[in-house]
Amino acid sequence: MNNKRRIFYLGSRPSEEKTGGVKYMNEVIDYLREHADLIIWDLEESGIFETRVNKINFRPLVSQFQSNIWGIKKLGKIGKGEIIIINSYLRHRFLFFALYAKYIKRCQPIIFVNAIYHYSLRSAFLNNLDRFISRVLLRSAAIIIANSNSTKEELMSLGISGNKIKVIYPRLDMPPINDTPIKNGKDAFFHILFIGYCEPLKELHVLIKAVGKLNKIPFCLHIIGDYQCDPEYVNKIKCLITDLGIEDKVVFHGRMGRNELSIWLKKADLFVSPSRRGVWESAGRSDVFWSSGNRRRQRGFKRAYRKRYKWFSL
Question: For the whole prediction, is pTM greater than 0.70?
Fold first, then answer.
């Protein structure tokens, strides 16, 4: 006899984990499959969505209307008090679905939030609209699951009660330890490493402006991650690099496998994360981590930066 609680999940489980958010939700799905009677309403099998389900393309209003109708039909046979899990990433596609589930069907929506985007769009109007949609969606939730304390703080800034928000951190999978020796040789460059998507949310432009002030120091900034997700932003970044005259000091590597990434983590002298989202629980400032590389060069870099810019902060 199956005594597991029935839970509905609105989403898919992609086998290819292209983003940290997909990986996080896949872990949630795998856990629920083991501990609950999980029923997945698979978006990819619905026939009306693209792989990236909240991408706005041709006739967006019609497309989103169809999305909500499809979701509301799924609610037809479930009863009061049923648990439905949604990711806030779907807020544009399924806002009315969530409201219908909460206030008409009297279900208990649990909304996972692993990214806040309401300040990363290209106009103040779109940012404010996204903020409004996010607030309406989140207020329909019985419980909100945030992936970090900084995400929780962002949600509270939307007027969401902190008592309604629980923090569940994603599992941290470090790249494998790589024993390949790194040949320092006579490399005089100070290697700075950035890992992540090239998009406004990650605030790579802040890092570019910061290293642009170090043009008299022999450094090389290595950018590892997808730089094709937001071509307009990347073009602005490249124009900024050109304006600062540091084209020969910035290298775009693209996505890397875990083994190759582990080598770069070992090779770099400095790792910097300027993301607004507080991946390292420090939203609103850049995070600086010294690697176990050349300590003499690190000390020299710190002295040079402090001497010119008073304190070591990006």
Answer: no
